[in-house]
Amino acid sequence: MQGKKYIMGLFKDEDQVVSTIAALKETAYQFQRVHSPIPSHKIMAALDLKKSKVGWFTLVGGILGLISGFALAIYCSTQWNLIVSGKPIISLIPFFIVGFELTILFAVFGNVIGLFTQAKLPTSKRMAFYDPRCSGEHFGVLAACEPMQQDGLKDFFQQNGGEVKVFD
Amino acid sequence: MPQLTYTSIDQTVLNTLSKPKKYYWAIVAVLFLGVMVGAACWIYQIFVGIGAGGQNNPVGWGTYLINFVFWVGIAHSGTLISAILHLFRAGWRNPIARAAETMTVFAVCIAGLFPFIHLGRVWQVYYMLPIPNQRLLWPNFLSPLMFDVIAISTYLTVSTLFWYTGLLPDLAAIRDRSEGTRKKIFTILSMGWTGAHDQWRHYTRGYLFFAALATPLVISVHSVVSWDFALGIVPGWHTTIFAPYFVAGAIHSGLAMVLTLMIPLRKIFKYENIITRDVLENVAKTIVFTGLIVGFAYATEFFIAWYSHNSVEIEQFRWRLLGDYRWGFYFMAVCNTLIPLLFLFKKIRTTIAALFIISLIVNFGMWWERFVIIVGGVAHGFSPHAWGLYTPSMIEYGIMLGSFSLFFFLFLLFAKHLPSVSMTEMKETLEHRGGHAG
Lengths: 168, 438
Prior knowledge:
The complex is a heterodimer.
Chain A: E1 5-11, H1 14-25, E2 30-35, H2 41-47, H3 54-78, H4 92-118, E3 139-145, H5 150-159, E4 163-167
Antiparallel strand pairs in A: 1-3, 1-4, 2-3
Helix pairs in contact in A: 1-2, 3-4
Chain B: H1 6-15, H2 22-48, H3 63-87, H4 94-119, H5 144-176, H6 180-190, H7 197-230, H8 242-268, H9 277-308, H10 311-322, H11 326-338, H12 346-349, H13 352-379, H14 394-417, H15 423-432
Helix pairs in contact in B: 1-15, 2-14, 3-4, 3-7, 3-8, 3-13, 4-5, 4-14, 5-6, 5-7, 7-8, 8-9, 8-13, 9-10, 9-11, 11-13
């Protein structure tokens, strides 16, 4: 990617971003990413993204939690093998509460791990081609082009109603 | 909200993070003093023994357990607002979700302190952990107290992670609008969040799962707290309605605390355009609903006591109505059920002063509800010769003062150093009328 020019079109309107993305696909410029202050269904739909895999991490965490919860309660009770009030040593109904709580806990751990690994956080890489206005009121569409196409890409963003930021 | 724009939202919230005035630090200092009073009382109790508190036979569970249940209850509405109303796509929850979530985290932290305080020999707290030890002792997971350890620590962990995840985009927004040390701090805290589309793709999914997991958790946590009582055979405690009764009561008290915190916050930080009268009105309407549920539960307890033909249970409820702690019962019945019905009048639920006063009354009533349930049960049990009364000691009052001071102390620090309204979710409200659309 060395030698490429990175240019961002900054828009204030979500719909302009959607139309710009559609138009960008028809050009030779290379779409990189969109920065936005809010999660936008319209932008997601325009980018035609696959569903996130975070849910699988959550599911695995939940299953591990359920097993761990029951295993913990069963292990602890078998270490103190004394029948009290005629109740069985391994009493599944009360142990379900431990299983349930750990299901939620581990599912959340899985969710957090999934979210952070999939979204690649923490990171400092994306700060390189980023405009701080994108966490305020602007939507930034980042595209790359060959140095000689730079003016064309700038014009493209301007024609679509955006401000232009060129990264050195 | 026609006058709100992305810029005005950012500006309003960022203005709240400006350098605090002297009176802010004066209030923080007073609250810190309250925290120190509580800490001193606890230290005194550790040296002298648990007898420094007023709990004694037959009332072994006093203000420490009352405050524990009270603070867990306060925590619940934060999750109701952030998770359950998120799943219902109730856009009105967005302006208050952040502060309510923060309230949850602080309230659970404070609630979690009370079992430690009640332990007496607090240094032996590790007995509750399932770790190999030379005593060959393991926790008994048949005990509702062990359910509680698991449930509360899960709730604290989950609500903290949920809160922090929700904060990420706003931390980045502050990073992008600050300089110097603050920028460095928020750069670390925001972890490189840039709002790139692939970050949002995973974030919205993860946030949805957070909400979906927090919803059953919040219901389970106060159910588990209620089983601390309901699984005992003490008259007044041993009842199957405790779980839904406690969950509804928890949300009732938490929503009241939301109003108690939001109304001054709205005034001081000039959030009138963000936390609108409609938002507060919706909270008030929900309080009417939860108030009716707790009122129904109060009545059901009396009905079942009569219907059971169980003389001990009948005596417990006769005594609740006419006995030594009858004032506590009158407080809870009037403050939690009857007074919130005033919110049925539009004029009252849209008057800020009325909302604030009634929220304080509900908080007061809910504290007394816990007193009536917890103390009432053990004070007037099976054997008349073992009946007895309970008066909290000054040490307990000191610790209670410390807990309330700690809550408001933490909340004040939060309000001036982190965004107390979610800028991202407010912007989403302008676009979609919903939260982190998943």
